[in-house]
Amino acid sequence: MENKSPGVQQVRFAGEYQGPLTVYLNGTPVFERNERPTSGLFEIALSIPFGVHDLVACSVCEGTIWSVSLELVSVSAEESAPVKRIPPYPVEGLTDGWLYAGPFSAGNAPEWAAMTRMHAPIGSEGERTFWRADLPGAWVRPYLENAIYGKWNYPLGVTLYGILRTGQELGDPHYTNYAVDHIEQCTSMFAYSSWDQAQYGSPGVNHQLTLIDSLDDCGSFGAAMLEANKQRALDGAEAAAERIAFYITREQSRLEDGTLYRKRGTTDFMKDTVWCDDLYMSTPFLCKYYELTGDTAYLDDAAKQFLRYKKLMFIPEQGIMHHVFDFKFGKGNSVPWGRGNGWVLFSLTELLAVMPGDHPERPELVAFFRELCQGYSRLQGQLGLWHQVLTDPESYAEASCTSMFIYAFARGVRFGWLEEAAPYVEAVLRGWEGLTRYAIDKNGNVYGVCRGSGYSFNKLYYKDQLSWQLNDTHGIGIVLLAGIETIKLRKHLSACSR
Description:
The chain is α+β, with helices and mostly antiparallel strands. Helices cover 41% and strands 13% of the residues. The longest helix has 21 residues, at 476-496.
């Protein structure tokens, strides 16, 4: 119910009931008939302040006849500022303004507060349901039609992680709240979308979370979700995290030694492959889930993935990684795609940052980090940027891999993982200068971010066909993270010089 008038309005409702009835306004009972007779006509006079209010009627069925009607019959305000009944969310096709839930068996009726939530199924297991309209077979189903806000997908996970960390670094809640609210819109609908999928065969929201079928659906947005959950406890986040953890550890295809790999693919050519990308789609989430649960099995799994991927995909003479290892051919694809390599180094820093100093895999992982940093530092371009194909300076300067190398080098210096800091400090500052000069304009638009990738054994696919896009969500958040780490590195250097 909504009052658009600036003052308190006196309203009168009239109705008829069959069966015990309680009417709540914002959780406070304003009408109760639980004694005999439990049927008849009634009126309610209410004082309605400015704003939107919850009006809930709970009716109990005692016999064969059971009904309740409640209509607004008078308002003290003039027509220019009325009080009116409105549905809690816009519902296409709804005519009378009321939504209906139930019936529920005796003793299982939900509390009134649960009845005002439009993002979760209502009732206990076995009687779980959702809202209906007063039309035959008219069930209400939430849908999300906008292209970005409230969507669960991995590029947005990258973006939101960057926005979240930006808000933290700047101490500005506008950025933090935007990211957290976006993520919570997804997590708060997790229980509903799972129920919706079971009811109808496909959910109306949260498709990629509810129907997880690849690591792309898991680690990126899931890691951002767990980082946001540190800011405030998000509705549904822990349940969603448990589902993601189960998928990664129990359902995702693995080789015999436990290496995460792609048994299936969007095309036959992509079957039976291991991708650099999947270290990002898995290990940052596993690290943060370890932080949440304290279960070292998730941290151990993340550590082993890096060492197994190194065996398959590391090119020791160059100190960099193949983008993909294809078991159909028994070899790597020999193309060091920029962002694929960036995912590896970025994700390794996320692991090292939370890994205890006495973890048995830590020395080998730090050594691997140093090997990769040496390999990537040799390939920095003249403008300070790294290239789409790392070893081909004629391929375009690519902003997302540049940002991830900046991020990782800066962290390596700050946390002491890199023994010779000076070359990497120079690489960070040159890289950030290059990004701000050539990849970011005065309005904050980000250029040079490679679009979503397939893979090939031919570097010309990456160089010529895999073009960049303006403000691509694969890169915006990573550029922000690079800027944050550059700021932190400068502060670190300033503190060390005192």
